[in-house]
Amino acid sequence: MPDHLRITIDELRKRMEAGEDFALIDTRNPQECGQSDVMLPEAVRVPLGNFEEHVYEIPKNKPIVTYCT
């Protein structure tokens, strides 16, 4: 993935604090999610293996930021 399409957590935090609105998509599989204490507020859980089942949950009116490990 090109670097210009990636942002760091700090960049995301700054942009959110500045009032930018994003659709946060958590693509971790259930095992990864269960082993982590990191949860993104208001994130939509869309495991990549089940993407087609959850695609309707992804907002279409704002930029999308995905989180994966």
Please state the average pLDDT score.
80
What is the topology, as strand order, of the major beta sheet? 2-1-3
Q: Judging from the principal axes of the Cα atoms, what is the shape?
A: globular
Query: Which structural class best describes the helix and strand composition?
Result: alpha/beta
Beta content comes to 5-15%
Run of helices and strands = HEHEHE
Largest sheet report: 3 strands, parallel
The total count of strands amounts to 3
Number of contiguous helices = 3
Low-confidence stretches: none
Can you describe this structure?
Strands 2-1-3 form a three-stranded parallel beta sheet, with no helix packed on it. It is of the alpha/beta class. Helix content is 26%, strand content 14%.
List the helices and strands and how they pair.
Elements: H1 9-17, E1 23-26, H2 30-34, E2 44-45, H3 51-54, E3 64-67
Key descriptive features of the protein:
three-stranded parallel beta sheet, 3 helices, alpha/beta, 14% strand, 69 residues, 26% helix
Kindly summarize this structure in a few lines.
This protein has 69 residues and is α/β, with parallel strands linked by helices. Helix content is 26%, strand content 14%.
